[in-house]
Structure formats: C-alpha cells, structure tokens
Amino acid sequence: MNTGVLLSRRDRNKAAKREAIARAAARLFAERGYAATTTLQVAAEADVAEGTLFRYAGTKPELLLMVINEHLRPLVDLSVDAQANDPVDEILLLLGPLISLAESQPDNAAPFLREVLFGEDGPERDESLAIVDRMIARIGTILAPHLDGDVDMTLDEVARWVFSALVSELLRDVVGRTDGGGDRQLVLRTRVRVLLRGLGAA
C-alpha cells in the first residue's frame, strides 16, 4: 500500500475523531454546562473510548478550550475584517464573540476565561492565547490613530490593558450574576468609553 495514501487516510481518521469529539463536547457543554458534563459522557456521545478522547484533549479544561477555540476562531477573523468609525464600536465588535459567549453560555464562559488567564499549559491553551494575542494586536491597530501622544505606555501595553479590563468585567459578570439583569453591551460600552477617554482616545 502506498505510504502517502496510508498516512492521508490516518490523518483523515484522526481529523474525523477530533471533529466528533469537539462536536459532542460542544453540544453537551451547551446543554448541561461544563461543570455538569463528564469526559466519559463526551466520549460516549462521540462514540469513542475515553482514552481516545484524552489523546485529542489531554484534560477536561483542554477539551473546553478546544470547543471554544473552534467557535471563536472564525468569528474573530470575521470581526477583524469588519470596520466601524468609532474605536469603541470597533473594540466591541472585535470582542463580540466573547461577549456573545458570555451571554449565551455563561456556565462555559467563566471556566473558559479562567483557563485562558490562569490555566495550565497545553496545546489548546496555546491556541486560546494566540487568539487573544490577535485580539490584542487588533485593539492596538484600532487605538493607534486615536491615542494621546502623552500616554506613558506602549501601544501593546495599552491594548493589553483595555483587553484585560473588559475580560475582567465579563468574568465578574458571568461569575457574579444574580438575575441576569442589565444591558451588558451598554455596560461594556461605558467601560470602554471611560478607558479610552482616560487615554485621550474617546
């Protein structure tokens, strides 16, 4: 048998198993929440052994990161392509996928954000951090034409500060929510406006 064909088939099988695992985890996390879902349940839903699941995601947190990375990656790419005239609008548009996740799946958004910020190293966390770096770089691009020249911070530092402040607000919201009241978009818009005003950018 041709080695190239064999490898290609093996790669296709691996990709199919990974897709099945990610799809099963996404459905169960959305239905039950991350905390209430076990890796054994995900493996059963994906029709693979639990040991096979751990070959694709070494831990349950890595599995969550895999699922949300798959969700965020194309949305972030789309939001980067979109343009708005107001830097506040542009930043909120860029962070739209994270905001949407917090609104639609708060039980998954909180552990995801915690794992990105404080989790153990792993390939899926590396991918999450790469997505975050792209967001931060884009925030820097958005802010560059608007920043006050007297700001005693580099553009990267400013972008990371703005991103961290907004992610902290999202995390506080999804962890400490009570009745789910309030307009999250309005609150975040106000936070961004205040931050940028302090930087001479809004």
Automatic annotation (TrEMBL):
PROSITE patterns: HTH_TETR_2
Domain of life (superkingdom): Bacteria
Keywords: DNA-binding
GO MF term list: DNA-binding transcription factor activity; transcription cis-regulatory region binding
Alphabetical list of Gene3D superfamilies matching this protein: Tetracycline Repressor, domain 2
Domain HTH tetR-type per the UniProt entry, residue ranges: 15-75
Database matches in InterPro entries: Homeodomain-like_sf, HTH-type_TetR-like_transc_reg, HTH_TetR
DNA-binding region range list: 38-57
PANTHER family: HTH-TYPE TRANSCRIPTIONAL REGULATOR RUTR (PTHR30055), HTH-TYPE TRANSCRIPTIONAL REGULATOR UIDR (PTHR30055:SF223)
Name the record gives this protein: TetR/AcrR family transcriptional regulator
Organism: Tessaracoccus defluvii
